[in-house]
Design brief:
Keywords: Membrane, Transmembrane, Transmembrane helix
Shape: globular
Number of helices: 18
Number of strands: 2
CATH topology of one domain: Growth Hormone, Chain: A
Protein name: Acetyl CoA transporter
Largest sheet: 2 strands, antiparallel
Radius of gyration: 24 Å
Strand content: under 5%
Structural class: mainly alpha
Subcellular location: Membrane
Order of helices and strands: HHHHHHHHHHHHHHHHHEEH
CATH architecture of one domain: Up-down Bundle
Membrane topology: Multi-pass membrane protein
GO molecular function: acetyl-CoA transmembrane transporter activity
Helix content: over 70%
């Protein structure tokens, strides 16, 4: 698949970067009887589940020829719609998390978020590949389940897997709609839900803010968001969110694509990454709260310095090892066994270190947001910050893929008389671009570290 086609497909994630446009509508329009957040969460998830159940067949058929522009556009539209629904659902979930958790436990919300995302990531990648793999299906799953043999066919197809997950979403959504009750912040019965008078006193101000948010309406919410954007603290944070991920864009978006291009199997990539990411995604946020408790931006900067230097170097070495071991003669250094150890060691290290720094930064970022937002417009304020955070990851993805596609020159390959393909010439833009981006990352740290420290020390009033 051409990098230009992948750049087009990357556009499907843009709703998460643009959801701020309709976040105040989600905050202000709801049914008090059904619940402020459930009014959006339930119908949106029902629509998404129905789309997954009813619309996946066309996508599965088109995926076989994804490189053709017509199919790229069709697949992109399907997932763009799905992302739009999930972005809207995310607004409601962010707002619900602020009222579902007490003020002292609000910082634990990002930990729940991180753990849940990693479990879902693991199930959707490892789970699907394990059930879709032809050999595993024929030698393990069918005998285990007592099913008849079907050589060359996986136990689960892409369409079947997505349909199952869509059906699962429908069932869970119906259960949430029927049995999960939202706390009515306008009710005088809140005292019965609090453990003691002290806790009630601590949460009293938050309840008033939530009551205010339910009454201010759509236009007033937009106005307050605009006032928040004009705050110097928020502008400094936006500048950080929009720029810090550019130096990491190759590692985040292109590294494993390049590894597959160099000869690493897609199955190895898809199985290895979630297998390492899942335990680290659960353990790292928990350990981070013990090490940097109360200082999320110190955690953020420590991870970032490590990310743009050491992790970038490990990524480059890993790709060179993959190219030599899988795409070349199989020898990197010191014989077959040594080369195999170097290859797997660098592959595991690259995957693990990226998972660690990503988890550290994501957890720090979300914890900082949760403690700084104005509860009066909690859902929209969280969406404001998350929108710029998502945009800061979206534009570098398309940008670096475009650069890779433009500046990479494929080699000239021809089959010799002995039947062996021989390639010569060409230019790979990945490695020089990684060097440039790492330099930009070091410059970012030098010029932005004081700004990060500045916003970390600001009082809550500076954000409201």
């Amino acid at each position: 698949i051409a990098y230009t086609s992948q750049a087009i497909f990357a556009l499907c994630s843009w709703p998460f970067s643009l959801k701020l446009l309709w976040a105040p509508i989600v905050d202000a329009c709801f049914s008090k009887r059904f619940g402020r957040r459930k009014s959006w969460l339930v119908p949106i998830q029902l629509l998404a589940g129905l789309l997954m159940v009813g619309g996946i067949e066309g996508v599965a058929d088109a995926s076989a020829t994804l490189g053709k522009s017509l199919h790229v556009q069709g697949v992109t539209m399907f997932f763009f719609t799905l992302y739009f629904l999930m972005a809207t659902q995310d607004i409601a979930v962010d707002g619900w998390a602020l009222t579902m958790l007490s003020k002292k436990n609000r910082g634990k919300g990002p930990i729940c978020n991180s753990i849940g995302q990693n479990i879902g990531y693991f199930l959707s990648y490892v789970g699907f590949l394990a059930l879709n793999d032809v050999d595993s299906s024929e030698n393990l799953w069918r005998p285990l389940l007592g099913l008849s043999s079907r050589p060359g066919v996986g136990l689960v197809s892409l369409g079947g897997f997505v349909k199952f997950m869509g059906s699962f979403m429908l069932v869970v959504t119906i259960l949430v709609g029927l049995f999960k009750k939202e706390v009515d912040m306008t009710s005088t019965d809140m005292e019965t839900l609090l453990p003691n008078k002290k806790q009630q006193s601590e949460d009293e101000e938050e309840d008033d803010h939530e009551l205010d948010a339910a009454e201010i309406g759509i236009m007033e919410t937009y106005h307050r968001l605009w006032c928040a954007v004009k705050l110097p603290a928020v502008q400094s944070l936006i500048m950080i969110l929009l720029t810090y991920r550019l130096p990491c864009a190759l590692s985040d978006n292109v590294k494993f694509l390049k590894a597959v291009e160099f000869g690493l199997s897609k199955q190895t990539t898809a199985l290895l990454s979630p297998t390492i990411v899942l335990p680290l995604g659960i353990l790292v946020p928990i350990l981070a709260t013990k090490i940097w408790h109360g200082h999320p931006l110190k955690q953020f900067m420590a991870a970032y310095k490590f990310r743009v230097t050491f992790v970038a170097l490990i990524d480059v070495l890993m790709l060179l090892a993959v190219r030599a071991y899988r795409g070349g003669n199989g020898i990197i250094l010191g014989g077959e066994m040594t080369s195999k150890a170097i290859f797997w060691g660098l592959l595991v290290a690259s995957t693990a270190f990226q998972a660690i720094v990503h988890s550290l930064q994501f957890n720090a970022q979300m914890t900082f947001f949760a403690h700084r937002v104005d509860p009066a417009i909690g859902g929209s304020y969280m969406t404001l910050l998350n929108t710029f955070a998502n945009l800061g990851g979206t534009w570098p993805s398309s940008f670096v893929m475009y650069l890779i596609g433009q500046f990479t020159i494929p080699p000239n390959c021809a089959v010799g008389d002995d039947g062996v393909e021989v390639c010569s010439g060409g230019r790979d833009a990945y490695f020089p671009l990684q060097l440039i981006l790492s330099g930009l990352g070091c410059m970012w740290i030098f010029f932005m570290r004081k700004r990060v420290q500045y916003i970390a020390e600001l009082p809550d009033d500076a954000w409201r």
